[in-house]
Design a protein that fits this description.
InterPro entries: AB_hydrolase_fold (IPR029058), Esterase-like (IPR000801), Mycobacterial_A85_antigen (IPR050583)
Mean pLDDT: 87
Oligomer: single chain
Protein name: S-formylglutathione hydrolase FrmB
Structural class: alpha/beta
CATH class of the largest domain: Alpha Beta
CATH architecture of the largest domain: 3-Layer(aba) Sandwich
Shape: globular
GO molecular function: acyltransferase activity, transferring groups other than amino-acyl groups
Keywords: Membrane, Transmembrane, Transmembrane helix
Largest sheet: 8 strands, mixed
CATH superfamily of the largest domain: Alpha/Beta hydrolase fold, catalytic domain
Strand order of the largest sheet: 1-2-4-3-7-8-9-10
Number of strands: 10
Distance between the termini: 55 Å
Pfam families: Esterase (PF00756)
Strand content: 5-15%
Length: 444
């Protein structure tokens, strides 16, 4: 049951149909005209309550959530129908009261499923209870990765192309990345190993760090972001070769936003730029050097990606920013400066991506992909601003827009499926690399 789809398929559509049927039956029948007016007025009042709640849903203190128009319609429509069912509860006939009583929770559930289908936060029943996506990394895989990890070097295409030992799918495992230096209270991380990094002859791979939005957790990147499915599709175009993707926790808690800086909220920046890279190089078979490392993320994670990517060209040479902000934010600017920068405006301004891009320009060998949804009127313009600044700073920038999506995991999936190639090519994996290898004649 954990794998039952709740973004489409039989379960949500069954809930929608049953809720609709109960609402229609509960409202049918001849009643006095005043009850009709009362029902309509109640529905309008319910919709008005939904509209009034929009600012609290989209921009609570410290959170980073924007719903698209369809999701907001689900929310307001749900409130309207619940209000109409409340009127049906007092219409007098016992049958209608019973129907209305059953309809109310189904309407609320329908609205929740509809909003989730648009935002894409919870793809399955299991994801609602944070069911483990997979277990810990098998000992055999750990041993093979450790054999590769300590030694820097180049790829081994012959080993990577060993089809007999290479699995057809990548592996996602839950791992602990200790905060040895930062002491940051990080939750468990996830690691995706492509097929070519597995088997009896694993190949050393480039690495990509991916970050969730906020509120969120590393498992969101794997579940809501369909990480393994998408990366396996890219790997299939290049003999099983794709980046090793590491998904650490930059938040510490779903409701926390340390903004990927070091502060009293936690040393998130040190965790991501010191502890996580050290663990990766010590435990995974990755290629070393900034030319082989990328960082990316969604929403708050996208902001972190451009922050850390622009601030640390000695670590990263590729950046993926999906629906990120112009600046790190934890509520209002005054609140952000107070809690994240110890009241220092100077420290705050030094951490702004636009200022970091100016400070470290020119970037001579950095690739950046910036994405947003076509329905995202809040973050889309911000991504335009940052992507243009990155281009002016010398980065090789690709700006993409996901059709008919907003600030959601649907946008992340579209960008990852359709627009990751500039980063993969930069990291020397992916379809273009595969084509180049095939067109190069063998040397005697």
């Amino acid at each position: 049951m954990n794998n039952v789809d709740i973004m489409g398929g039989w379960l949500p559509y069954s809930v929608y149909a049953l809720a609709f049927l109960l609402v229609v039956i509960a409202l049918l029948g001849r009643g006095k005209r005043r009850w009709l007016f009362i029902t309509i007025a109640a529905a309008l009042l319910g919709a008005g309550i939904g509209i009034a709640l929009i600012p609290f849903v989209q921009s609570p203190i410290g959170l980073d959530t924007v719903l698209d128009p369809i999701a907001l319609t689900w929310m307001c429509g749900g409130f309207a129908l619940v209000a109409a069912m409340v009127v049906a509860l007092v219409r007098g006939k016992a049958k209608r009261r019973v129907l209305a009583a059953f309809a109310i929770p189904l309407v609320l559930l329908s609205a929740a499923l509809g909003v989730n289908a648009q935002f894409g936060q919870y793809p399955t029943l299991g994801s609602l209870v944070d069911a483990p996506i997979s277990g810990k990394m098998p000992e055999s895989v750990i041993a093979s990765q450790h054999r590769l990890a300590p030694t820097a070097g180049t790829t081994n295409a012959a080993a990577g192309a060993d089809a007999k030992s290479m699995p057809t799918q990548g592996l996602v495992s839950r791992v602990q990345i200790p905060a040895t230096v930062s002491k940051f209270p990080a939750r468990d991380a996830y690691v995706y190993l492509p097929p070519a990094a597995l088997g009896s002859h694993p190949e050393r791979m480039p690495v990509m760090i991916m970050l969730s939005g906020q509120p969120g957790a590393p498992e969101n990147v794997v579940q809501a972001g369909s990480l393994r499915e998408i990366m396996d599709a890219w790997a299939a175009k290049d003999h099983g070769r794709a980046p090793i993707v590491v998904v650490p926790d930059q938040l510490g808690d779903p409701a926390s936003n340390p903004m990927c800086v070091d502060s009293k909220l936690g040393n998130s920046a040190t965790y991501l730029t010191v502890d996580v890279p050290k663990w990766i190089e010590s435990n995974l078979g990755v290629l070393r050097g900034p030319e082989n490392w990328a960082i990316g993320g969604f929403s708050q994670g996208g902001t972190c990606a451009i922050q850390l990517g622009s601030a640390h060209p000695e670590i990263f040479s590729a950046i993926l920013d999906v629906s990120g902000q112009v600046e790190p934010a934890n509520g209002s600017q005054a609140h952000t400066i107070k809690v994240g920068f110890d009241g220092s405006t100077t420290a705050y301004e030094a951490a702004l991506p636009l200022n970091l891009l100016k400070k470290n320009a020119p970037y001579r060998d950095t690739v950046a992909v910036f994405g947003s949804g076509s329905l995202d009127g809040v973050y889309g313009p911000r991504v335009n601003t940052v992507s243009e600044a990155a281009r002016n700073a010398g980065m090789d920038v690709t700006r993409v827009v996901s059709p008919n999506t907003a600030h959601s995991w649907q946008t992340v999936q579209w960008v990852m499926r359709n627009s990751l190639e500039p980063i993969l090519t930069h990291l020397h994996v992916g379809p273009e690399q595969s084509a180049s290898e095939q067109s190069t004649p063998e040397q005697p």
